[in-house]
Amino acid sequence: MRSVPVAIVKGAGDLGTGAAYRLWRAGFRVLCVDLVKPLVIRRGVAFASALYDARITVDGAQAERIMFVDEAVYSWQHNAIPVIAQPAARVVDILRPQVLVDAILAKINTGTRITDAPVVIACGPGFTAGTDCHAVIETQRGHNLGRVLWTGSAAPNTGMPGKVGGEDVLRVVRAPCAGRMYGRKAIGDRVKPGDIIAQVGNTTVPAPLEGVLRGVLHDGVQVEENMKIADIDPRAEVSYCYTISDKALAIGGGVLEAAFALRSKWEPLLTA
Questions:
Q1: What are the residue ranges of CATH 3.40.50 in the chain?
Q2: I want to staple 48 with a disulfide (CB 3.0 to 4.6 A). Which of 16, 38, 100, 192 is the partner?
Q3: Mean pLDDT of the 53-61 span
Q4: C-alpha span between 157 and 198 (Å, rounded)
Q5: What are the residues whose beta carbons fall under 8 Å from the beta carbon of 267, sequence distance 6 or more?
Q6: How does pLDDT run across 111-166, given as a tens digit for each residue?
Q7: Gyration radius of the chain over CA positions
Q8: In this structure, CATH architecture of domain 172-234
């Protein structure tokens, strides 16, 4: 029997979780890498939350924090997804994965190279297929969401959030100033305009519209002025706070398509 292919996903926020989940469901051994204190907002559906809370289960997939790369094998033995806070380059050098996915969504390339793995897939703008990676996945909402790009780059960042429930700018809550942020409402809480949902330093942050608090940064995170700190879903469906979104699954589907379309690059490398 052939060995199981290994995929490393850089960035374990909600969209990176969609990619990791799709790969895991398809039989890959997946390991996620993120910051020591991830700047993740949709914490109920992000494998990065395991770095705060030791473990999280999303749509039946359990992710768990590990401290050392060699601990990943123990997670894989019980079909879990290990998550580690270490420099991604070091993890890649040790594990030598068949597939590397950059799902940091920084809108720029923060260091991924096409030579990092037999197959390198990048999500969103900032990458050029054939130069930085083998394939780019479109992350902008619309007709091309989740499409695999074999040449060129994803659509440039518009700076505008996509519409959800008819709202775009208002549903994204930003820090009014720099400081440490603490939530005053929990993910899944229903809010109305004026409700205090967070506090940054000594400044309170009111909800700009009615809906469900779909995501909020972890308590104690240092934020900068205008940084995204929370997300309100005007559809007001609480279950959406705890299930992978349509956007994340579409992007994950593109990642999975690219990984298998390029299997001739990694499959021969698996040991018998």
A1: 6-155+246-269
A2: 38
A3: 97
A4: 27
A5: 2, 5, 98
A6: 999 999 999 999 999 999 999 999 999 999 999 999 999 999 999 987 767 777 77
A7: 18
A8: Beta Barrel (2.40)
In 217-254 the beta strands, taken as DSSP E runs, fall at 221-223, 228-233
CB atoms near residue 81 (< 10 Å): 28
Closest residue by Cα to residue 24 from 59, 61, 70: 61
Neighbours of 75 (CB within 10 A): 22
State the virtual CA torsion across 161, 132, 40, 74 in degrees, nearest 10.
Answer: 150
136, two tokens: 């780019």
Cβ contact 174:226 at 8 Å: yes
Q: Output DSSP code: residue 189.
A: -
pTM (2 d.p.): 0.94
Note the pLDDT tens digit of each residue in 198-218: 999 999 999 999 999 999 999
CATH of region 6-155+246-269: 3.40.50
Q: Alpha-carbon distance 249 to 161, whole Å?
A: 18
Instruction: Specify the domain boundaries for CATH 2.40.50.100 within the chain.
Output: 172-234
Determine the 3-state secondary structure of 178 from DSSP. Answer: coil
CA–CA separation, 158 and 214 (whole Å):
22
Tell me the backbone φ, ψ of residue 174, rounded to 5 degrees.
-120, 155
